[in-house]
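Quick review question:
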């Protein structure tokens, strides 16, 4: 199990989350790519990229703040491209900007 998988598994356990993902910046720094997804999420769906300027994920990256959305279907900041990855029943979302030294 990779370090990212261990981090994701522990985060999901701690937050009592059904699923989760870790996204990393692409080399051109314009998008985020899924580096690790919870079991049950298909790899082909996780190959999708998330534009940095869109949605709550982009806001979290830009402002380096944690964000929680309790009802993503009603929140205008939510990037709708996440539903094909996490499924139509996704209700809430927590995003955090993880920063490594160096």
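Suggested answer, residue by residue:
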């Amino acid at each position: 199990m990779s370090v990212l998988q261990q981090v994701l598994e522990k985060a999901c356990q701690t937050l009592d989350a059904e699923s989760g993902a870790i996204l990393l910046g692409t080399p051109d720094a314009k998008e985020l790519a899924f580096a690790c997804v919870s079991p049950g999420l298909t790899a082909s769906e996780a190959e999708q990229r998330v534009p940095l300027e869109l949605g709550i994920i982009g806001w979290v990256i830009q402002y380096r703040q944690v964000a929680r959305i309790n009802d993503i279907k009603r929140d205008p900041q939510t990037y709708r491209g996440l539903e094909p990855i996490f499924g139509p029943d996704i209700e809430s979302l927590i995003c955090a900007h993880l920063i490594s030294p160096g």
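Why it works: The domain at 3-95 is CATH 3.30.450.40 (Beta-Lactamase). The mean pLDDT is 80.
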